[in-house]
Write a structure and sequence with these properties.
single chain, 259 residues, alpha/beta, Rossmann fold, three-stranded antiparallel sheet, 10 strands, 16% strand, binds 2-amino-2-deoxy-6-O-phosphono-alpha-D-glucopyranose
Length: 259
C-alpha cells in the first residue's frame, strides 16, 4: 500500500516532495525526474527552485508524462511550453535533457514507441511526480486504460476537456487527443509521488487508494507499486477511511526513513 502523508496545505506538500527530490539529486546527480503538468505539482517546482542553488543540476534529466496531439509546440498551453515555463526555467534544468512526448500529427504513429525507447535509454525514471484528474486519471490515462499500457495516443474524455478548458480561450480549443505515458510506463518508475489538493479530488483519491484495482480508476494502479507516496491536504484526504491510521503511521515513522 502506498504511504499516505496528510499535510496542512499545498505549500507543505511542495516542501516535503522538494526535499525528497533534492536528496535524490544529491545522491544521484544524473537522476531522471518524471514531470507532471497541471496546477497540483506547482508547489513542488516552486520549492525545488528555492533549493536549486544548493544542487548540482547539470546531469539531471526529465520526462514529461504527456502532451496534447496536434497543438503547436509553441502554443503556450502545449505541455512542452508549460514544462519549460513552470519547471525547467525556474529550477534551472538543462533544456536539452528534458523530454516531452512528441504530439505532432505527422510523426504521431511512432511517437509512443520512440518515447518508450528514450525512457529506457535514459535508465528509467527515478521519481515520478503525479497529479490526479477528477475522474481518477493519471497522466492522461482516462478510465478504462490498461494497467499494462505504454505510451500511446488517447482520446480525452469530455470531463477532462472541460477541466482543462480554463487554460484555453474556449472549451472547444482543448485538443481531442493526447499522447501519454501508459500506466505500465508509469509503474516502471522507481518511486511514485502522487499529490492531490482540495475537495474536488477527494473521490478520486479515495477510489485510487482504498477502492478495488480497476481500469475504471487509473489512479488505483499505484496500489501495484512497491514504493508509492501520496501527499494530500485534509480536503483531498476527507474521504479516506483509514485517514487516522495514515496520520498515526506517519507520526511514528523513523526520522531517517524519508518518503
Ligand atoms: C491534466 C494532466 C494530469 C494532471 C491533471 C490534474 O489532465 N494531464 O497529469 O494530473 O490534469 O490537473 P490539476 O493538477 O490541475 O488538477
Amino acid at each position: 500500500m502506498a504511504e499516505v502523508v496528510i499535510v496542512g496545505n499545498a505549500q507543505a506538500a511542495g516542501e516535503l516532495v522538494a526535499d525528497a527530490i533534492a536528496a535524490l539529486i544529491t545522491r544521484k546527480p544524473d537522476a531522471v525526474l518524471g514531470l507532471a503538468t497541471g496546477s497540483t505539482p506547482l508547489p513542488v517546482y516552486q520549492a525545488l527552485a528555492q533549493r536549486a542553488g544548493g544542487l548540482e543540476l547539470a546531469g539531471v534529466s526529465g520526462f514529461a508524462l504527456d502532451e496534447y496531439v496536434g497543438l503547436a509546440v509553441s502554443h503556450p498551453e502545449s505541455y512542452r511550453s508549460v514544462i519549460t515555463r513552470e519547471v525547467v526555467e525556474p529550477i534551472g534544468l538543462d533544456p536539452h535533457r528534458i523530454h516531452v512526448p512528441d504530439g505532432r500529427s505527422e510523426t504521431i504513429e511512432s511517437a509512443g514507441s520512440d518515447y518508450e525507447k528514450a525512457l529506457v535509454a535514459a535508465g528509467g525514471v527515478d521519481l515520478q511526480i503525479l497529479g490526479v484528474g477528477t475522474d481518477g486519471h493519471i497522466g492522461f490515462n482516462e478510465p478504462g486504460s490498461s494497467f499494462a499500457s505504454l505510451t500511446r495516443v488517447k482520446t480525452l474524455t469530455e470531463q477532462t476537456r472541460r477541466d482543462n478548458a480554463r487554460f484555453f480561450d474556449s472549451p472547444d480549443q482543448v485538443p481531442m487527443h493526447c499522447i501519454t505515458q501508459g500506466l505500465g510506463t508509469i509503474l516502471r518508475a522507481r518511486h511514485l509521488v502522487l499529490l492531490a489538493f482540495g475537495e474536488g479530488k477527494a473521490d478520486a483519491i479515495a477510489a485510487s487508494l482504498e477502492g478495488p484495482l480497476a481500469a475504471m480508476v487509473p489512479g488505483s494502479a499505484i496500489q501495484l507499486h512497491p514504493h508509492a507516496t501520496v501527499v494530500v491536504d485534509e480536503a483531498a484526504a476527507s474521504k479516506l477511511r483509514l485517514a487516522d491510521y495514515y496520520r498515526y503511521t506517519y507520526a511514528n515513522k523513523p526520522g531517517w526513513q524519508g518518503i
